[in-house]
Design goal:
This protein is about 70% helix and about 0% strand. With about 190 residues, it is mainly α.
Length: about 190
Amino acid sequence: MPRVGLTTDRVVAAAADLADASGFEAVTVSALARHFGVKDASLYTHVRGLQDLRVRVALLAGGELIEEIAGAVAGRAGKEALAAFAGAYRAYALRHPGRYAATQIRVDQSLVTDSPALRRTAEITHGMLRAYGLTEPDLTDAVRLLRSTFHGYCALEASGGFGAPRDVQASWDKVVEALHVALENWPRA
């Protein structure tokens, strides 16, 4: 019988908070059991194990991230939408480092297909890129360029990897400008 007050959503939310506080790798069933003052076995009513827990955190974080991005890009197009998208992505990654790390794990494709939040991610991203006149396969290539650029920048920034005296925000603005130029001048087949 599930412990009163303990739900799957509450367990996953606590895991996401733990990820932000201590790092995604610190998210374990044992750590959550200690947090709730229960035995590990009590949590298996709510999650099937560590992998299931981490995937649920990834799906929660992915949903939060796309909601922030969607709000930022609403009513915008082109460079303005790109800058809003990039800014929301970076802000989430820096504000929620553990949740953000969760969004980088590999999730079974069937779960992605079944997740409204992750389907919305594709819709929002592709919608923003359509303003640049991109269609497949260029659309997929552009998504990969944006994701790798944003992720690389955020990972370096979070780890203190930018030691030059140049303002990190000024560099970010140049990166977004460069991406805009690249998208406007995308090499077509």
